[in-house]
Amino acid sequence: MIENFNRTSPEGAVKYFRNCIYLGDLKGALSCFDPEATYIERNGQEIKGLGNIEKALQSICSWKPEIKGIKQRVTIVGDLAIWIDKYHVKAKMPNGEPMEIEGVTACIMKRNIDGIWLWLVDNPFAANDIE
Asked: Per UniProt, which keywords does this protein have (predicted)?
């Protein structure tokens, strides 16, 4: 069941994105990204362009993981925001094995002309960058 989310706040945008991932809604998850967005993979590779980001999101959407924020911080300056979040992921891998991980995400978000917050830079593996 898709809920109504208020994406006019960074918190609401993050809840919407995580719900799309949980439901396996690739199109909905991709709608959370600005057309000029960059997605950063676990290995640090920067993926640019919505078509390429869609490919990167396909596997996580197929797992339909439950992603819960543990602690977050958001700072808004005009139409930009930085979102830092410690999260917990629980899922079943394609082979049926359970998976649980914790991580840290760092994102730059941009408010579009409709007031919706979108990812400009999404680094869901930010903890890897500082360890």
From this structure: Isomerase
Average pLDDT, integer, range 8-18: 96
Say if 4 falls within a structural domain.
no
DSSP string of 31-89, one letter each residue: TTEEEEEEEE-TTS-EEESHHHHHHHHHHHHHH--EEEEEEEEEEEETTEEEEEEEEEE
Q: Would residue 25 count as lying in a domain? A: yes
CATH code, 44 = 3.10.450.50
**Residue 57, pLDDT score:** 96
Mean pLDDT throughout 42-52? 95
In one-letter notation, the amino acid at residue 127 is: A
Residue 63 falls inside a structural domain: yes
pTM: 0.92
Of 34, 28, 127, 42, the C-alpha closest to 87 is 127
Instruction: Identify whether 42 is part of a domain.
Output: yes
Q: What is the pLDDT of residue 1?
A: 47
Mean pLDDT (the chain, rounded): 93
